[in-house]
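Single Protein Entry

Contents — chain, fold
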Amino acid sequence: MKFSKRILNIAPSATLSVSAAAKNMKAEGKPVLSFSAGEPDFGSPKSANDAAMEAIKRGESHYTLNTGIIELRQAVCDYYKNRFGLNYTPAEVIVAAGAKPLLYEAMQALVDDGDEVVLFAPAWVSYVEQLHMAGGVEKVVDTMSTGLIPTKEKLLEAIGPKTVGIIVNSPSNPTGAIYPEETMRMIAEIAIEKDLWIIFDEIYERFTYAPAKHVNIINVVPEVKDRVIIINGVSKAYAMTGWRIGYALGPKEIIAKMATLQTHLTSNASSIAQWAAYGAITGADEDVERMRAEFEKRRRVIVDMINDIPGLKVREPEGAFYVFADVTGCPVPDDMKFCEMLLKEKYVAAVPGTAFFAPGYIRLSYACSMENIKEGMKRMKEFVEGLKK
């Protein structure tokens, strides 16, 4: 059977692949502990569940506007006004079946064959594959040697005549790094000077840990607003990964183009899930803070336990719910081999850093129980210590 070159050139999501392998092993009865998926281990907020049930009772089971129900889009506008002081109208908001389709739509709308987009590495696994689907080329700016924060010099080096945009992800998946105000200012000013779009992925903006604070790039440089597409959603902040609701905010012209593409893809996100998202955004702030506080406790435990493993080291993340551990000092410095052996020998699933343009590192999610964190890190320590014997 012949397949298209396009599909053959797309690599599977490393995070979902590892997660699937772990689930299969667990189904076989293996005592697997998975730290691979970015999925909060909490239930959906009551306000979301109640809103979904009420929508079902009302018979809200038909197509919606392809950009999303007006109630949800207005709630998103209100959220951005209250949280960031930013003014958007429902016409500048689009709802989709998760944040991933929105990133895909944005790249399809902005990128022509051969166009270049800047990525800051380590970078989330799906950015580059979605860019390739649009015919684009990634220009990778490494931040590992600059404290996980991009520098002006390196960014300018990456920008050329074919560059059309920059993807900014803060708090970062996979590192948990948060870009400070001065970095956001630098990126915004360069985007304005070079006439570039910014895709601003702030899906983890509710999960930050003092003294670090999330910075919205438009708050720093308001003039950049007309060239920024904000990507957000309810999956992370409200523990609603399976509901599949994301949203984007941006200039009406680009939102309209994304909406046109969406008419030929999913039409609209699930009507019931949209009402659940409405319930979450308008009534679940206390749930979000409870999760954030629990993640902060887990962060401290997992960081301390990893740094207690000979040959491994990790910096404390400022946001999100991941740690990005350096394994180059252990007897198996190859991250791919390390993760393969760790899963096979100790039934602990982690994601190789190579998937994020960062070989020699592994990503572990602490969006799991404290019990699993302690047991998993205990097994990982036994694994590393066993390599030396």
